[in-house]
Amino acid sequence: MQFGRLVGRGVGQLGSMLDLEVMVVNFAMTRVVAALFLKQTLEVAAKERERVANDAKTKKDKMAKRLRDVFKLADDTGDGCVELAEFQQMLDEPEVRETLESMELNHHEVRALVELLSGGERPVPILDFLHAALTMHEQAKTIHLMQASMDIAKVEREVLSIGAKQNALLKRLGMAAEIAAL
């Protein structure tokens, strides 16, 4: 009878160990499947990010080409720079306005951008125009920041000019004082 109890107790313990082993194996398999699913999900997400980045780059490249074509319409000399008056005249043409609107650019904003880039007196290089127009398209607030930057640069040029005039005047006054001392 005791042998039966021992065997029964051993079988019960063996059954418990088998149950524990089955639970551990099931848990491990669940973790492996979850890890594989997570890996596949991350790979798909990475490919999607890459696709979105490529689409954005393609769109930006197409826009840059169209902007370059618009710029070349105003570049009468072919030197890669456009005078403010030439660009403003070109912006009055309906075809150019339609092209800009198709790129989601307001012709008034583009006009203001060219005025900023030219500083009112300098020709605008094509690379400056492309960079600024693409940036403006990406962020509407950029034009305000650019205007502040251009205003600061203009004030800086004026201060330097005043300083140079002041130095010249001081030199003349110094010479006049030396002559008067003689």
- Contiguous low-pLDDT stretches (5 residues minimum) are none
- What is the subunit organization of this protein? single chain
Level of helix content?
over 70%
Mean pLDDT: 79
What order do the helices and strands follow? HEHHHEHH
Assign the structural class, choosing from mainly alpha, mainly beta, alpha/beta, alpha+beta, or little secondary structure: mainly alpha
- The radius of gyration is 37 Å
Largest sheet, order of strands side by side?
A: 1-2
Termini gap: 141 Å
- Portion of residues in beta strands equals under 5%
Q: How many E-type strands?
A: 2
Gross geometry: elongated
Largest sheet, strands/sense/barrel: 2 strands, antiparallel
Q: Please count the helical segments.
A: 6
Please provide a written account of the structure.
The protein has helices at residues 2-74, 84-91, 94-102, 107-118, 126-138, 142-181, and strands at 81-82, 124-125. With 182 residues, it is mainly alpha-helical. The protein has a domain at 58-181. A two-stranded antiparallel ribbon has the order 1-2. The longest helix is centred in the first third of the chain and has 73 residues, at 2-74. Residues 62-97 form the EF-hand domain. InterPro entries: EF-hand-dom_pair, EF_hand_dom. This is EF-hand domain-containing protein.
